[in-house]
Design brief:
about 150 residues; mainly alpha; 6 helices; rod-shaped
């Protein structure tokens, strides 16, 4: 049996250990919360990476270089459609216009080449790929049809 003076020391030691255990429980709860928040941030970054593609930089339309580059190239082929229509009448008269018409497909082809690796990652890249492909097909259809009276 413990002596009377030891009981007070043991109670004090027990209270100290209980306070320490409570402090550790609070720290464990804080660590669990911090780990959960880190996990959520990692998940958000992973979803962001899947959406934007590797090496895409920080979020936002200005920094999503892959789909912005593909869209700029695809949209660049739109004004060139006017050149297809204008040069269409020269296809039979001047065969040197044929390489020039084929060169007009270059922005669309570059858009397809940029967007192709990311077609499974982002819907925006898939749309830019299709739009760029239309820019590639326009001069080919133009040459296949030959001179068309507008």
């Amino acid at each position: 049996m413990a002596y009377r003076d030891q009981e007070a020391a043991l109670r004090e030691r027990k209270a100290l250990l209980e306070r320490e255990r409570a402090r550790w429980a609070e720290e464990a709860a804080e660590l669990e919360t911090a780990l959960r928040e880190i996990g959520e941030r990692v998940g958000a970054l992973d979803r962001r990476l899947q959406e934007a593609g590797p090496l895409s930089g920080a979020g936002g339309w200005r920094a999503d270089r892959v789909d912005v580059a593909a869209w700029v190239l695809a949209l660049l082929s739109v004004p060139l459609l006017y050149a297809h229509v204008v040069w269409n009448e020269y296809i039979e008269r001047d065969p040197t216009v044929i390489p020039a018409i084929l060169w007009l497909a270059t922005p669309g082809l570059l858009a397809v080449l940029v967007a192709w690796p990311y077609r499974k990652v982002s819907g925006r890249c898939r749309a830019a790929l299709v739009f760029g492909l239309l820019g590639v097909l326009a001069p080919l259809v133009n040459l296949a049809l030959g001179p068309v009276g507008w």
